[in-house]
Write a structure and sequence with these properties.
By secondary structure, the protein is of the alpha/beta class. The protein has 8 helices and 12 strands. It is 37% helix and 20% strand.
Length: 242
């Protein structure tokens, strides 16, 4: 396999699920390692670089939410959470911890593969929303903030790099490429994840809350990304391409 082959780590205490996912993803050309718990995950992470980590929420010892928080503290490595069917609280908390996507169990391996590919596209250096070609990859500036689609970086008005998860970056890029336009949840999910909203899907709301805490002077009264009652959300300030 070449150096560009995605390297995936699956962390799940269920051996059958681990083996199934490993075989399936390897069969689709990916490098895959696995770990049964947090301790094994840390050992595996020391052996090399991984492009994405798949975390089960319910595990003995450190659960998936704890491990997700730990991964976020280490960097901006994309994370997909596996949650128990119907456990909306786990999904919301996982997104709050910085997970990029989630998939309820039981799941179809093909859907997991599609989610992995979507997250990897979004976290890659040249796949930012609105930046399909080099000509479209101009930096976007608003109120002194600078969004760089090629590097997938955000810098504040003082030039300081702001750490964003892949999901937070994609959400901000969606607003910045559609300034002063109301976007509803379905449109935002389509722009950021390439899928329609499921019933009670709050991923946009959760990631927007995290994003506001990082860019708004007063997150409780946002001035950059405003909530439009009955409509959705809107980047309320002008955006300039540079």
């Amino acid at each position: 396999m070449n150096e560009r082959t995605p390297h995936i780590l699956i962390v799940d205490d269920d051996r059958e699920i681990r083996d199934l996912v490993v075989r399936f993803l390897r069969g689709h050309g990916m490098r895959v390692d696995s770990a049964a718990d947090g301790r094994a995950m840390r050992r595996v992470l020391e052996t090399g670089r991984f492009d994405l980590v798949i975390l089960d929420v319910m595990m003995p010892g450190d659960d998936g939410l704890t491990l997700c928080r730990e991964l976020r503290a280490r960097g901006d490595q994309p994370v997909i959470m596996l949650t128990a069917l119907g456990e909306e609280t786990d999904r919301i908390v996982g997104l709050e911890m910085g997970a990029d996507d989630y998939l309820p169990k039981p799941f179809n391996p093909r859907e997991l593969l599609a989610r992995i590919r979507a997250v990897l596209r979004r976290s890659g250096p040249s796949e930012a929303p609105g930046a399909g070609t080099a000509g479209d990859a101009a930096c976007l500036t608003f109120e002194g903030w600078r969004l760089d689609p090629l590097r997938r970086e955000l810098r504040d008005p003082d030039g300081v790099l702001v750490s964003l998860s892949a999901g937070e970056y994609d959400l901000l890029a969606a607003f910045a490429t559609h300034p002063q336009r109301v976007l509803n949840r379905d449109q935002l999910l389509d722009l950021t994840k390439g899928r329609e909203a499921a019933p009670f899907d709050r991923s946009v709301d959760v990631q927007l809350s995290r994003l506001r805490r990082k860019i708004e002077p007063d997150p409780a009264n946002p001035a950059l990304i405003k909530t439009i009652r009955g409509g959705g959300y809107m980047m309320a300030v002008p955006v300039t391409r540079t």
